[in-house]
Structure formats: structure tokens, C-alpha cells
């Protein structure tokens, strides 16, 4: 089977363009939202199929998997995890004492002093305490209660769980969930799985993908005709768009949620990934409390973090947490019951999350190395963000907003009318057609903007900035050369 045929199989399996049409049946919609993942699985089969292409490797720039793209693990995190996994190493002189101290504390909190035991459904108690202490430090002293902390299997598990307890009703009373467009497809997929109603609000591309509260008001008022909007999802820093919200924007969003009695979900997994010197991460929790008790005592908020992004890039450990505040006690009881069904999140992932929130501090043996590695990762990402923005904006027919944070570019691409017609002939979205051609000719795999949602008549793709600098330069040059040829071919 040819590579092109494999991709066409993917289009057939996923039912089309990944556009997120909420009128589609749930199973079809789930396939659409996961089309990028199915494509990745097909791509991974190229070597075993012996397919000959005009490139030597497939560069999987379609997913934010840091270590798969060559990022080195943080030494201290891996040392503690090694000690926890094989405690016999605690006698080894090869490990620093502060790593051993962390490992002993974590093991003592586990049943049988082993990561192989179940934990409480809400997570290991001392790790939840460490998460609460981390949040308090991060937010300048705003208190966090360990009882409001739930350890999760990555942030995705927490997001799915919260949506499960919030969705109810039928017909016009069915729960509406407001999500940004463009969005991370987890949201549209879970909304479809739960048969909730997706309520789109559009980010302002002309204003660096800013969130405008007037757009939220438009979306919620239109949605009230056919559902009951109850949930507002925010991704900050943004995925796929990379914007970082200002404090004023966050205040406006919180005030809007308070007015409309919406449950706020703040996806903050990229909180360490802020590159623009004009931007700063502000947690929704901190801003909520600083707005005063009228807001902090009434607005329901769930915020999420993960080991997978930031400077850690530990996707495979599937570690994460959520902090849930102002939840009604009876609903909180139901949340604990729902979590108990899956017994507990992976205890190794919980331990990895603990190291993220409880890293070496000045004066400890491992601090200097940890600090140097962390700053190196984040510094390189900042350089690559600027490099990507600058080089894309040198290409005719491509415009890329500043990459303020996260780890992706989401450039807007011009697709000529003849290419749009060719895409229609293949029953594809134009940007899917573009991305498939890019993959066929260069081996670079990116995700079409239609997989995330976009304003009608605009086309984009998402590409990670995680490859090493020299490889990233090669990727960007190949995209530039391809785009120029594509415009010439379909002019």
C-alpha cells in the first residue's frame, strides 16, 4: 500500500476533515477529533512497510512530546524516580542525598513502602500536601487546601472527570460547554463522548489570539437558545495558539463567569512555558482570590497542571493534578466516588508530579544542576519560539503571530483557490490537503488547523517547536520551500 493510500485510509476512518461539526454522531465526531492521532499511527508504519519517499526520516512535529523530540530528562527527577522504583539504590553513593531524602519520604507514604501499591483515590496524601504548598508559593501566599487537590493521570484525566460530573439534562436543558476556537481536541472529543453541547467562542487572531469577553457574551447568548451553558474552558498559555492571557483579561473572564454562574475550567499545563518578555503567567486561582470574597467564595474553579509539559517533558509518566475550589459538598462527594472507580492514578506519575512541585531549593546538593537544566530547556524554547515566528513571517503566504508561550506555532497559511478545488475533489479540508502534501514531499508531519477549529475561510496548521535548534531550522526551511512550490503549482 502506498503512503498516500495510507493517508487516504486515515481520512476514510476519521470521516473527513476534523472540523468539529457538533451535528455529527458521537462516534463519527470522536473519530474526527482523534484524526491527528490515527494519522500518527499510520505514519509510524512507514519503515516497516518499506515505503520509498524523497526524505530520510519522518519528523513528527505534530505533537508536544518533548523527549521524543530529543529533550533530555531533568536529572533530579529521574534520580528520585529511579530510587523510588528500585529502593536498593538508596545505599548507592552515586545518588545525591537530597534525592534520597525525597525518595524515602515518598516511599514511606506508599503502602508497603512501594510504588507498586495502590494509593488513596484522591492521591498520596503527602504529595497532595506538596502540591498545595507549591500552589501557595506560586500564587504569592494565596492558600491552597490539600483536600481540594486531586492527583490525576495527566491533566487530561482531570479535565474529563470534571466534565463528567458537570454534564446533565436533555434537549434545551443539556449542558453547554464553552471552549476556545482554536482548541485542543481533547475538549471537543470529551464533549462528544458525554453528549454535551459544544459552545464555540473564537479567539482574536488579529490581536495575537486574545480572548475577548464580548465574544464570550455573544457565544453564551446564542447558546441559550439550544442548551444550558454551564462550563467555560480556558487554555492559558494557549494550545494550539500560544497566547498568554493578561491579568486584566483573566479578571474580565472571572467576572463574566460570576455573572453567568459558569463553572470555570483553567487548563494551565503550560504555566512554565512563557517566552515573551512582555508576558507573565497569572493563575486563575490567584486572580480569583485577589478579586475579593464576592468572587473567591462563589466562582467554582478547577485548574489543571501536568508533568508532561513545562521544562519537564515527562509525558509518559502521566502525572498531573487538579485543584477544585468552591464545589458544593454533595458534588464533591460524587467527584470522590467517580475517582474511586479507577482506584487511583499511577503512583509513579504521582511521584513524578511531586518532584515537579517539590524541586531542589537553594542550599541543597542538587539545586545548581537542576536550576541549570531547567533554565537551559526554557531558554532554548524561548529562542526556538522567536526563530519560528521570524522565519515563518519571511515566507510569502504565511503569517505567524508571536509565540508568547506553550510549545507550538499555529501559522495562518494562504491556500489558492485551485488547491481548495483539488482538496474538495479528494473530499478533504483544504488545510488537511496541504498538510498531506507537505508530509508526502518533505516527511514533516504537522496538524491541520481544521483539527482544532478555525474561523471559516481561514487555514492554519499546528507545529511543535520542540525539535533541536538545527533540526528546527531544517524543518522551517523545508516548510518554506514547500509552501513556495505549493503556491506556484496551484496559482
TrEMBL record:
The reaction(s) this protein catalyses: L-alanine + 2-oxoglutarate = pyruvate + L-glutamate
Q: Which segment of the chain is annotated as a signal peptide? A: 1-18
Aminotransferase class I/classII large domain residues:
79-478
Instruction: Cite the SUPFAM superfamilies for this sequence.
Output: PLP-dependent transferases
Cofactors (names): pyridoxal 5'-phosphate
Query: Which EC number applies?
Result: 2.6.1.2
Q: State which pathway it belongs to.
A: Amino-acid degradation; L-alanine degradation via transaminase pathway; pyruvate from L-alanine: step 1/1
InterPro entries to which the protein is assigned, alphabetical: ALAT1/2-like, Aminotransferase_I/II_large, PyrdxlP-dep_Trfase, PyrdxlP-dep_Trfase_major, PyrdxlP-dep_Trfase_small
Which branch of life, at top level?
Eukaryota
Keyword hit for Transferase: yes
Alphabetical UniProt keywords: Aminotransferase, Pyridoxal phosphate, Signal, Transferase
Q: What class of enzyme is it?
A: transferase
PANTHER family cross-referenced by the UniProt entry = ALANINE AMINOTRANSFERASE, ALANINE AMINOTRANSFERASE 2
UniProt lists the family membership as follows: Belongs to the class-I pyridoxal-phosphate-dependent aminotransferase family. Alanine aminotransferase subfamily.
Binding partners and assembly: Homodimer.
Q: What is this protein called?
A: alanine transaminase
Naturally occurring in which organism (per UniProt)? Felis catus
Amino acid at each position: 500500500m502506498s503512503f498516500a493510500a495510507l493517508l487516504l485510509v486515515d481520512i476514510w476512518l476519521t470521516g473527513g476533515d476534523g472540523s468539529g461539526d457538533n451535528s455529527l454522531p458521537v462516534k463519527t465526531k470522536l473519530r474526527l477529533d482523534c484524526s491527528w492521532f490515527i494519522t500518527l499511527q499510520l505514519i509510524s508504519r512507514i519503515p516497516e512497510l518499506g515505503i520509498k519517499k524523497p526524505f530520510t526520516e519522518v519528523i513528527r512535529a505534530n505533537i508536544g512530546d518533548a523527549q521524543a523530540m530529543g529533550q533530555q530528562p531533568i536529572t533530579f527527577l529521574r534520580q528520585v524516580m529511579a530510587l523510588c522504583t528500585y529502593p536498593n539504590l538508596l545505599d548507592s553513593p552515586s545518588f545525591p542525598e537530597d534525592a534520597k531524602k525525597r525518595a524515602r519520604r515518598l516511599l514511606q507514604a506508599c503502602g508497603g513502602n512501594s510504588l507498586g501499591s495502590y494509593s488513596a483515590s484522591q492521591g498520596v496524601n503527602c504529595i497532595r500536601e506538596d502540591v498545595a504548598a507549591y500552589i501557595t508559593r506560586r500564587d504569592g501566599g494565596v492558600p491552597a487546601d490539600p483536600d481540594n487537590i486531586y492527583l490525576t493521570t495527566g491533566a487530561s484525566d482531570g479535565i474529563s472527570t470534571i466534565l463528567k460530573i458537570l454534564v446533565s439534562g436533555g434537549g434545551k436543558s443539556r449542558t453547554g460547554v464553552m471552549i476556545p476556537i482554536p482548541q485542543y481536541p481533547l475538549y471537543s472529543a470529551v464533549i462528544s463522548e458525554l453528549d454535551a453541547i459544544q459552545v464555540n467562542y473564537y479567539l482574536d487572531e488579529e490581536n495575537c489570539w486574545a480572548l475577548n469577553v464580548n465574544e464570550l457574551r455573544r457565544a453564551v447568548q446564542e447558546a441559550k437558545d439550544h442548551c444550558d451553558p454551564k462550563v467555560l474552558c480556558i487554555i492559558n498559555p494557549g494550545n494550539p495558539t500560544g497566547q498568554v492571557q493578561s491579568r486584566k483579561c483573566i479578571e474580565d473572564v472571572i467576572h463574566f463567569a460570576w455573572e453567568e454562574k459558569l463553572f470555570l475550567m483553567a487548563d494551565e499545563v503550560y504555566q512554565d512555558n512563557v517566552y515573551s518578555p512582555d508576558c507573565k503567567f497569572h493563575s486563575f486561582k490567584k486572580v480569583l482570590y485577589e478579586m475579593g470574597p464576592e468572587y473567591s467564595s462563589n466562582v467554582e474553579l478547577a485548574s489543571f497542571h501536568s508533568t508532561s509539559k513545562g521544562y519537564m517533558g515527562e509525558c509518559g509518566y502521566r502525572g498531573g493534578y487538579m485543584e477544585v475550589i468552591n464545589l458544593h459538598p454533595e458534588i464533591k462527594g460524587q467527584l470522590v466516588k467517580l475517582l474511586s472507580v479507577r482506584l487511583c492514578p499511577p503512583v509513579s506519575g504521582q511521584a513524578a508530579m511531586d518532584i515537579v512541585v517539590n524541586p531542589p531549593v537553594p542550599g541543597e546538593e542538587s539545586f545548581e544542576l537542576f536550576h541549570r537544566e531547567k533554565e537551559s530547556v526554557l531558554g532554548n524554547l524561548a529562542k526556538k519560539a522567536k526563530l519560528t515566528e521570524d522565519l515563518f513571517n519571511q515566507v510569502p503566504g504565511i503569517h505567524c503571530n508571536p509565540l508568547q508561550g506553550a510549545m507550538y506555532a499555529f501559522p495562518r497559511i494562504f491556500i489558492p483557490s485551485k488547491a481548495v478545488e483539488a482538496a474538495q475533489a479528494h473530499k478533504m479540508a483544504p488545510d488537511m490537503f496541504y498538510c498531506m502534501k507537505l508530509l508526502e514531499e518533505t516527511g514533516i508531519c504537522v496538524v491541520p488547523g481544521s483539527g482544532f477549529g478555525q474561523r471559516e475561510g481561514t487555514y492554519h496548521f499546528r507545529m511543535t517547536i520542540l525539535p533541536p535548534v538545527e533540526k528546527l531550522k531544517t524543518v522551517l526551511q523545508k516548510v518554506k520551500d514547500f509552501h513556495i512550490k505549493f503556491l506556484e503549482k496551484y496559482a
